[in-house]
Structure formats: structure tokens, C-alpha cells
Amino acid sequence: MATNRTFTMIKPDAVEAGHIGGIINMITEGGFKIVAMKLTQLTVRDAQKFYEVHKERPFYGELVEFMSRGPIVAAILEKENAVEDFRKLIGATNPAEAAEGTIRKKYAKSIGENAVHGSDSDENAAIESAFHFAGREQF
Ligand code: ADP
Ligand code: MG
């Protein structure tokens, strides 16, 4: 799998608040090319599976409920050094700690409802991309 790709979701809080356009604009202005994208909704089972690594954490139930409560935008992004550069663009998990100019600083409401997801490694980017997109949906 190419190492110049990462996976993102615009989470239900940001979709509900009408921030799809603003967030996509920050992504493209940040130099990322969109190579897959769709509006979709996770079932409870999908969210449990996607966040399985967090299943022992105290916020897991809350996270699954949040991520399945409404539509999300799922996308695959391409750029040199995509995983690391996108984590920089989204900012810290907790928006109170997110740097100026980051997506979470601008759009996140709380540590749980934090507007966007970004893969944390090339390996997870590939797994998460395959979870959401068939090969024929990736350009
Ligand atoms: P990140 O999304 O920055 O990689 P994590 O992988 O640690 O953060 O956590 C996954 C998601 O779980 C976060 O984006 C957030 O939605 C939620 N989350 C993380 N920590 C908490 C917390 N302390 N309370 C509630 N939800 C949390
Ligand atoms: Mg993470």
C-alpha cells in the first residue's frame, strides 16, 4: 500500500453543524488531494469494529454511540508524508490543546466530539481505507 495516503472522517458533530465544506476547504488548502470520498453512516457494529483498539478505554461506549449517531464524510487523502502532515493539520485530540490554525481548534467541541479523524500510521491508514472503500472507489 502506498505510504503517501491517509484516511479521514468528518465526524457526526461537524456534519450536523454544517462544517463539511469548511473542513474540506482546510484539507485541500493544506495540500491534500482527495482520492476517495463519500457521505455515509456507521452502524453501531461498524463503529465498534472501527474503534476496536479502544475497547478497553472508559470512553469506548460513548465513542461508539457518538460515531454512529448521524452521517459522516469518509475520505482518503494523498500527499507526501500524508499521515504525519494530516495529524498536524487536525491538531490535538483535545481541542483545548489544539494549535491555532488546526481543524480541531476551529471546529471541535470537546475531546470526544472533535470534528475529524486522522489515521495514526501508514498501516492503520490502509486498514481504515479498506474498511470504508472498495478498490474501485479509490482513485
Ligand atoms: P485521535 O482521534 O486524536 O487519534 P484517540 O485515537 O486517542 O485520538 O481517540 C479516538 C477518539 O476517541 C478521539 O478522536 C475522540 O473522539 C475519542 N476520545 C478520545 N479520548 C477521549 C476521552 N477522554 N473522552 C471521550 N472521548 C474520547
Ligand atoms: Mg487515534
Automatic annotation (TrEMBL):
Its cofactor is Mg(2+). InterPro entries: NDK-like_dom (IPR034907), NDK-like_dom_sf (IPR036850), Nucleoside_diP_kinase (IPR001564). GO terms for molecular function: ATP binding; metal ion binding; nucleoside diphosphate kinase activity. GO terms for biological process: CTP biosynthetic process; GTP biosynthetic process; UTP biosynthetic process. Its EC number is 2.7.4.6. Signal peptide: none annotated. It is found in: Cytoplasm. Its main location: cytoplasm. GO terms for cellular component: cytoplasm. Residues 3-137 form the Nucleoside diphosphate kinase-like domain. The keyword Magnesium applies. ATP binds at K11, F59, R87, T93, R104, N114. Major role in the synthesis of nucleoside triphosphates other than ATP. The ATP gamma phosphate is transferred to the NDP beta phosphate via a ping-pong mechanism, using a phosphorylated active-site intermediate. NCBIfam families: PRK00668.1, PRK14545.1. Belongs to the NDK family. Homotetramer. This is Nucleoside diphosphate kinase. The lineage of its organism: Bacteria, Pseudomonadati, Bacteroidota, Flavobacteriia, Flavobacteriales.
